[in-house]
Structures are given as C-alpha cells and as structure tokens.
Amino acid sequence: MPRSLSVNRCVTPSGELSVTLGHELLDDYLKFLAGRVRPNSLLAAAFDLKVFFSFVHKEPAEVISGDVISFITSQRAPRVSSKVVRISDGGSGLSARTVARRLSSISGLYAYLIVKGDAGVHSSPVPRGLITRRARRNGGRAAPLLRSPRLLPRILEPAEVDALMTALRTRRDRAMVEAMVFGGLRRCEVLGLRLEDLRPGERKVFIAEGKGGHQRMVPISSRFFTSVAAYLDNERPADSSSEFVFLVLKGTRRGSPLSAYGLDEILDLARERADLAKGTCHELRHTCFTRLREAGMALEAVQAQAGHTSVETTRLYLHLADDWLAGEYRRASEAIDAQASVGQR
User: I need a surface site. Which of 96, 99, 184, 311 has the fewest CB within 10 A?
Assistant: First the structure.
C-alpha cells in the first residue's frame, strides 16, 4: 500500500467523472462503482477509502477486524484541531453517521473483492456487529458497531429567514436561497438547474438529476421566479454559453457554473452578516418541508416535493411540525377527559 493515497479526479471524454487513488485494487473498485452511484457518492467513497487505508497502512488482503475496530476508535476520538466540532452535540470527534458511512464504503470494497475472487480476499474484515448478552436473547442478532442517534434537524424561524434574505448581496443568491426555502431543493439540485428546466408559466422546475438519479417536477413559489427573472435580466453574464442557471458573476471563472463550495461560501458570509447560527443548505430545505407540513400539506405530497423514495424519511417532519403534534395530543387528551367524566357520573 502506498504511503500516501490521493484522490484524483478527471472528466472522461464522454463527460463521466473518473476517480482514482493510485492503488490498482482500489482504482478498479472505484471504476466499477462509478457506473452504479452518483458523482458525489463516488467521491465520498474514494475519500473514505483513502482515510481508512492511510490509517491501517496495509494491503486490502492483510486487513483484519482489529484494524477496523481501531479505525472506528480513532475516528470517534477528539480531533487534534479544535476546529472540528460536531454540530449535533458539540463533540470534537467525527459523528456516528460519518463513521458509519466510512464503514459502509469499506464493506462495499470488500464485497467487491470477494466476488472478484482474485485479490486474495475471502471474507470481509468489517464485523456485522457485536455479540452481546442481549443479542443472544434476541435470536443472535448482533448489536450494531455504531449507534447513530436520530436527531431532529434544525430549522429557521420566519424572522431568521427574513434576516438571511436581507443579508444576501445579489439577485442570484436570493433566487438560490428561495429555491431551497420555498421549493425544498437540495444544494446539488439548485446548482444543477438548467435554463430549460425552468417552467415559469407553470410555476414549476424540472429536477433532471435528483438524488439517486431520480427525476421529478417541483412546484415552487412565484417569489423564486421573480428573483430568477431579475437575475437573468440584470446579473447573469450575457456572453456565457453555459446551460446552467446559476453562474459565477466575477473573477477568472466568470460565466462558469457556480460550485458547491461557492454556494456554501455565499451562505456562510450571509449568516455571518445576519448574525445567524444556522442556515445551511440542508437546514433551509428542512425549513421548507416543516412549514409545508405545518400548513396542512399531506405527508405524501411532502414526500413527492422532497423527492424521498420512502415516506418513512418524510415522517421526520411530523415531529418538527409543532402544531400537528400539539393538535393530535389535544384531541387525544380531550377524549380521555371526556371518558373520565362519563365514568364519574
């Protein structure tokens, strides 16, 4: 195993993303994976494998379960730099979800090597779980290596949304934020919007490349289309040949599609000017669906708007919509009180 692996990316003549690490087996797996997952997932898997094998310094066939356990321990330990802080609970190690994703990437690699059959790998070193006393009572079902707490996402209050909007500097930035807070679009979906995807007459946008490669048509507030029209008329570089809606406005990359890093930087600066502790792309998306649910939108409709494949993912917004929970509790409580009154007569 090379002492230092590096994630190298390039775009093939056919327009597909190619990612390598500089190790034959790992590169073969990433080439195989490229045909099954989205570009962001491919990059995440490459980085996860780089982190793991840079830690163990072993060839894939030499890795044992003890190496994986040591890796988990190191990932959960406090970081040397105090700049790494878990937003969920303020801890300084990596979150359980991040470590679980890295274990999934490692498991995927070994499943591939086992099927391939020529890498000297006959079993996966990633344990399926831990056999505990309780596990023996549960029919031998092992306890998970990591427990990922199910946390409610943070959302913005209406006044915080207004403050964030006021802190934005351009019509482009306002339109992007409105796409997330009024339409619930993901960051990649906002940046992936093409001019032909806009349907102003129908007040809809077409999501050509959603999560998992799924496509959908999303209704969105007229406020978004007003901001987009102002951006297209006054700010978008007229000499750009790009098909994407949101472009870089200044500098050497003027006229090029805006990157995920660029959008994150825009929001970071706007939150700083507005003195807000929250307001990431995903938090704006969560805010959208919570408000839609509170306004009475059916759960199945929220699922379609969000692009969730399972309604179980969408049920999260039942817990965020305070009015729904309070209303359900109030009705149940009144029914219990009524039954008690009848019994006392």
Answer: 311
pLDDT digits (tens, 9 = 90+) for 252-276: 999 999 999 999 999 999 999 999 9
Per the CB < 8 A criterion, the answer to whether 281 and 270 are in contact is no
Clarify whether residues 127 and 165 are in a common domain.
no
Q: Which two tokens stand for residue 154?
A: 């943070």
What is the percent of the chain with per-residue pLDDT over 90, rounded to a whole number?
Answer: 59
Give the model confidence (pLDDT) of 176-186 as tens digits: 999 999 999 99
CA-based Rg of the chain, rounded to a whole angstrom?
24
DSSP result, 155-183: ---HHHHHHHHHH--SHHHHHHHHHHHHH
Interacting residues of 19 by C-beta distance below 8 A, sequence separation 6+: 7, 8, 9, 30, 34, 42, 43, 46
CA distances from 128 to 75, 107, 141, 211, 296 (A): 18, 10, 10, 27, 42
Q: At what angle do helices 158-167 and 171-183 cross, to 10 degrees?
A: 160
The Cα 327–Cα 325 span in angstroms is 5
Judge contact between 226 and 51, C-beta under 8 A: no
CATH of the domain at 69: 1.10.150.130
Fill in the amino acid letter for 42: L
Q: How far is CA 120 from CA 33, 62, 234, in A?
A: 20, 9, 61
- Global pTM? 0.74
Q: Is 176 exposed, middle or buried (0-12, 13-18, 19+ CB in 10 A)?
A: buried
pLDDT category, 15, cuts 50, 70, 90? confident
Which pLDDT score, from 0 to 100, does residue 87 have? 47
For residue 343, the one-letter residue type is: G
Domain membership flag for residue 63: yes
Tokens of 82: 């105090």
**Residue 87 is assigned to a structural domain of this protein:** yes
Is residue 239 assigned to a domain? yes
